[in-house]
Write a structure and sequence with these properties.
Elements lengths: L1 E2 L8 H4 L21 E2 L6 E2 L11 H19 L4 H13 L2 E9 L2 E8 L5 E5 L5 E5 L8 E8 L5 E8 L4 E8 L4 E11 L5 E2 L5 E6 L16 E6 L9 E4 L14 E5 L6 E7 L6 E6 L10 E5 L7 E5 L2 E6 L7 E6 L11 E4 L5 E9 L2 E8 L2 E8 L4 E3 L7 E6 L7 E6 L6 E5 L6 E2 L4 E2 L8 E8 L5 E8 L11 E4 L14 H8 L3 E5 L9 H5 L6 H17 L8 E6 L2 H11 L6 E5 L18 H4 L5 H9 L2 H4 L9 E6 L7 H15 L5 E6 L9 H18 L10
Parallel strand pairs: 35-36, 35-37, 37-38, 38-39, 39-40
Antiparallel strand pairs: 1-20, 2-3, 4-5, 4-32, 5-6, 6-7, 8-9, 9-10, 10-11, 12-13, 13-14, 14-15, 16-17, 17-18, 18-19, 20-21, 21-22, 22-23, 24-25, 25-26, 26-27, 28-29, 29-30, 30-31, 33-34, 34-36
């Protein structure tokens, strides 16, 4: 049984696709201003574009649409756009990505995405034959599968379906024999939260969004409640088990907590997890025969301050990935067969390694599988039932993603990839550590000839910051190449090597792609995350600037030939770099970005971000939010480089008005010389999209960067 915090983030290199802009005259009208000045805790905050806020704001929506229409016209005039569109659409047409694998017995479930589609649910039977279970297009226009959960025997699948990338879904139940829907349907449910089946498959628990009238400040991701659905019963009869944001029920949870109830097989044990946009979780234990009820008592044994980012239950043992006083992580075990067992009774199943970061774990019949990163390369360990830890042999160095395991099966299903090799999926056991399941990603082109190197940049305070660089072996290191430099710096998320053919086409054309592993991420453990969190966000920005300088020092690209880009929480990073160090690079692109964190309490998904950014209800929290706010940091008389802000109109994670306010303020302080474009997409939200749409967006990016940055034209591909 898997326990995970619900970290709301978008890793730019993997799933967020940016575009840029040419240096052309500004044609869009000036946004009006309002005289809003506030003094929280005695601090002065001027907010001339406050009028843009709100989830239902027709004036702002019309303004945003006008920006998007103008940007589209300008982008369509870029001279190299048709060539990039043809090149990347050809790549998209020959791509196939298999993801989200779940092995149940000898049957493998997975999502297969090909050109033009949002991803079909597939099933590979034990004899090797594959069949289509669900094409989401048959469930409605613009529908996509955001999550799914097979029942314990694999006879049914609970599928989360959304429309237009909104990530607000309904869960429907599919019969895997007939590939037809059962009458059961529940919702609305946030798209990443899958159903949790009872061990006997008779029903599942799910997390339902609150009715609009009960939401905190209109935020749809507050006051959610866990319900239980018995297969074949009306959803309106589903009993409520527990909810967030009320003091009438015990235990008490904050309004922004995401609650999940899971059911380990083989006992009357149930596990209640409170999580959110933070790398910590709260874990409670309850006991009930069959499904839990509203009267099931819960005993909380792990709290947020215990720094537990992940846990697994195997039988009566609760395994914890703990960062408390061990920033690189260790594994603890609690024997839940003891009625009052708690964290104080935990034993150490795996000690911390000073040179390796533990980042994930899965429990299987034969033991606990642990992912650990050493010097940027992942390793896979198994802690057997005898307590002995063994490192499994991997097929090659690279990034490992633990995908699934089952309590009645040996081994763990995992994927492995590098910057230049697509992910492949394996079943790992001590006897067969890399049994190829023949289900990964496929591309029509081979990128193995490209080079990837890991170097370090020296930040302002002397900290050595990892910098990954991908390039063709024949480029000239004289600073004349164009480079894209990405960063994220939030939630302790690590930007490990990930295969992206669309990104590699930029490199194969003779350009440079780099990733700065700034503080705020998790590349060097929990301490690395905390060093760039909240009031320390400026450290990540300094790291990003150090990476631009390192690229220049090594001859990969001069500063004016570097384009920064980031998405979601990466907006604080790249927006902050733009506001404080505009002279250090040539262009900035930000997708669906958090750009006005001082107003996070008034945004969609706002309260869920307090743990990462700061709580505006406290003086320390508000000071941290103002200090890291890119919108508030923009100043008159500063010449900012060109900027593109990409927005998905169906975004339910980051309010679109954050990008709107930032664009308007940039134009105002930059006057007639400002180049600020807003690229909108009415068919997506926070990044969920088709491969064809990915290709189109990358084409915009590459054509615009080529047009604007002064670097030389790259040599022909060999």
């Amino acid at each position: 049984m898997r326990v995970r915090p619900f970290i709301q983030h978008l890793i730019p290199l993997a799933t967020c696709f940016l575009a840029s802009l040419p240096a052309l005259a500004q044609a869009t009208p000036t946004a009006r201003t309002v005289d809003v000045v506030e003094h929280p805790f005695g601090l002065e905050v001027r907010d001339p574009y406050r009028w843009m806020e709100g989830n239902d704001n027709p004036e702002f929506q019309a303004w945003l649409q006008a920006q998007g229409d103008d940007t589209r016209r300008r982008m369509d005039a870029l001279p190299s756009l048709p060539a990039w569109q043809g090149r990347l659409q050809a790549v998209s047409a020959n791509m196939s990505i298999n993801r989200t694998h779940r092995l149940v017995g000898d049957r493998l479930f997975f999502i297969r995405q090909t050109s033009g589609g949002m991803g079909n649910l597939m099933l590979r039977d034990g004899d090797g034959s594959e069949r289509l279970l669900l094409d989401p297009a048959t469930a409605g226009k613009g529908a996509s599968i955001t999550a799914y959960a097979p029942s314990p025997d694999g006879s049914r699948v609970a599928v989360n379906l959304d429309a237009g990338g909104s990530e607000v879904t309904h869960i429907r139940v599919l019969d895997t024999v007939s590939a037809t829907w059962l009458p059961d349907e529940v919702g609305p449910v946030w798209g990443e939260i899958a159903a949790n089946w009872l061990p006997d498959g008779s029903g599942f628990t799910y997390l339902q969004l609150a009715p609009e009238a009960e939401r905190h400040a209109g935020d749809p991701l507050t006051h959610q409640r866990v319900r239980f659905h018995a297969i074949g019963t009306p959803p309106e009869d589903d009993p409520e088990l527990v909810r967030s944001g009320t003091r009438d029920l015990q235990p008490v949870f904050a309004p922004q907590d995401f609650l999940m109830v899971m059911h380990p097989p083989g006992s009357d044990l149930h596990v209640l997890v409170a999580a959110g946009a933070r790398p910590q979780s709260r874990i409670c234990i309850g006991r009930a025969a069959g499904a839990p009820t509203a009267s099931t008592p819960w005993r909380c044994i792990v709290d947020f301050e215990d720094a537990v980012p992940g846990a697994e239950v195997l039988g009566n043992t609760l395994y914890l990935l703990s960062n408390k006083d061990r920033p690189n992580g260790r594994i603890l075990a609690i024997d839940l067969s003891q009625p009052d067992a708690g964290l104080a009774d935990a034993t150490e199943a795996l000690a911390m390694d000073a040179h390796a970061v533990v980042s994930d774990l899965r429990a299987a019949r034969d033991g606990l599988y642990v992912k650990r990163m050493r010097n940027g390369v992942d390793e896979l360990l198994r802690i057997g039932r005898d307590g002995k830890a063994t490192v499994l042999d991997m097929p090659e160095p690279g990034t490992i993603a633990l995908l699934s395991s089952q309590p009645d099966q040996d081994g763990v299903v995992y994927a492995m990839q590098t910057w230049t090799r697509p992910h492949q999926v394996f079943l790992g056991t001590p006897e067969t550590p890399a049994l190829d399941l023949k289900s990964g990603a496929a591309a029509s082109r081979d990128y193995a000839h490209l080079r990837s190197v890991l170097v370090e940049a020296t930040s302002l305070d002397g900290t050595r910051v990892p910098l990954s660089i991908i390039h063709r072996p024949d480029i000239v290191l004289d600073g004349g190449n164009r480079a894209l430099l990405t960063g994220y710096g939030g939630y302790g998320v690590s930007l490990q090597p990930a295969f992206s053919p669309m990104g590699l086409e930029w490199v194969d054309a003779g350009n440079v792609h780099a990733t700065c592993h700034v503080r705020g991420g998790g590349e060097r453990g929990d301490a690395w995350h905390r060093a760039g969190q909240g009031i320390h966000k400026h450290k990540g920005i300094e790291d990003m600037i150090a990476c631009t300088r390192e690229l220049a020092a090594r001859g990969y690209a001069s500063r004016e030939n570097v384009a920064l880009f980031g998405g979601s929480m990466g907006g604080v990073l790249v927006g902050g770099a733009l506001a404080h160090h505009p002279e250090e690079f040539g262009l900035a692109a930000i997708a669906v970005g958090v750009l006005n964190p001082a107003r996070i309490a008034h945004a969609i998904n706002g309260a869920n971000q307090f743990a990462e950014l700061g709580n505006p209800d406290t003086e320390d929290g508000m000071r941290a939010l103002i200090a890291q706010d890119p919108y508030l940091a923009l100043r008159e008389g500063v010449r900012y480089p060109p900027v593109l802000l990409a927005v998905g109109l169906n975004d339910n994670r980051v309010s679109t008005w954050m990008s709107g306010k930032f664009a308007a303020r940039l134009r105002a302080v930059g006057g007639g010389d400002a180049v600020v474009w807003v690229r909108i997409d009415g068919d997506t939200g926070h990044g969920l999209t088709s491969l064809d749409a990915v290709a189109a967006t990358y084409a915009d990016l590459y054509a615009a960067v080529e047009h604007h940055l002064p670097g030389r034209a790259p040599p022909p591909s060999p």
